[in-house]
Design a protein that fits this description.
two-stranded antiparallel ribbon; two-stranded antiparallel sheet; 7% helix
Amino acid sequence: MRRQLCIATALVALASLASTLYAATPATSVGFRHARAGCAKAGCDCCIAKTCAPQYQLVEKTILVPQWVTEMRKINVTQYVTEAREKTVTCYQQVPETKTVVNTYTVMVPEQRTRTVAYTVAKPVQRTIEEKITVMVPTVETRVGTRNVARTVSEERTYTVQVPETRVRKETYVVHKPVNETVTRQVTVMVPGSETRTGTRQVMKCVAEEQTITVQVPETRVRQQTYTAYKPVYETVTQNVTVMVPYYEQRQGTRQVCQMVPVVEQRSVCVDQGGWACQQVPCAPCRGCGGYAGCGQCAAVPVVTRQVWVPKYVYKPVSVTAYRPQVVNVPCTYTVQLCRPETRQVQQAVCKMVAEQRTCEQPYCVLVPQQRTVTVQKQVCVPEQFTYTVPVCRPETRDVQETVCRLVAEERTRDVPYCVMVPEQRTCTVQKVVCVPEQFEYQVNVCRPEVRTVNRTVTEMVCEQRTREVPYCVMVPEQRTCERQVTVCKTVAVEKQVAYNVCVPVQIEKEVPVRVCQMVPKTIVCKVCIPCKGDCGQ
């Protein structure tokens, strides 16, 4: 509705502006001057209300139109040409040479020996014990909760509607005319220069110094160590375990769903049913004597007929379909997860550790102190004189000619139509959805702890000392000598010629397309207004 009111207001403003321009057109005054002169000559009143219609003629004119043209222009382009060249490169090749080398090496020869070893054996002993365990027993518990339910409530609201109203006001505005002036002013410019200065800086120099240090040299030794190793032995034991097995159950319930229901409402819409009407407006008086005819002979006042838009705002009732929220109870099916206890037999592997005595040779490292003399490079700071150049800017005053644009203010007056929105209070009924708390009952699966007694068989390990003969192998070192052929590669320098390519820049001329804007003459036909002739021969 607001959009239709704005359109109607714009149409009224355009009609008012058109009538104002039509009343002020110069064609009417020209036609009236011709009619007044003819009537003054003839001495009759028949030509007073007649006006001459403007006439036009077609005239050919030549104007310049911009047109983009593509031209070919020559430019200098740098291209790179590949040129083949040769150079001498020194390459190094590996030349093989065979030599005979005598090597002395040590071979570890195995030797079998026997020794008596005492070891501990763990015997399993079983006994039955009573143990208390906690079992979670499932139960169903009914609880009461609170939930929010959506309900529809009617509520009257007062709202403000902005009704458009067209008004005309006088507006004074200021127009600024630019005026260019030449002004001479002094500018301080910083002229760059350089200045040589002398400074002192610290320079790091290396000084050699001998120091005696103590170094820990590692030495590897071997020792015999006896340790007890435990072997894992696995046994399979059957145990009874109570497991909570989940299952699903379908239940029926009701849930609330908010649906949008169509509702037909009556509203008022503002419609502009106006039309164009003919209106007679008197012409302007004569500039000479102030009358409407020559020297006051004609008594009738000439009028001009024009069309004016007459607005007519009518409020019409319109049926509008609006969607309102409504809460509906809908039956639904939901799934509940429950648990039931079930006893199962589980095969469980039990690990038993069996002790065993073992002997091994363990290498260990010993750090032996040793005195050494080393040369250390020490950094020493030494002052040094140096000369450096610093850029310095010196101020200098200069005269600059500048063109300053100054704006001169000029006041003008114009009529501006504007639209004013007048507030109007109205009342309507609104459907409002309110959340109301409601109590409801629901069931919850709860597991309660319960203490039970279970008989369990426990296996204990009892240690027992035993002796056995263990064969072992000892590696005895033995010196041996062998001759083998060794191939040694010698590096030999060889010179050879290598060809390579070089890119050489060459200047060439090349034609490229360039877009240029040119002014092209064009002949057009336009209408030109010519003076008209009245019925009285003028």
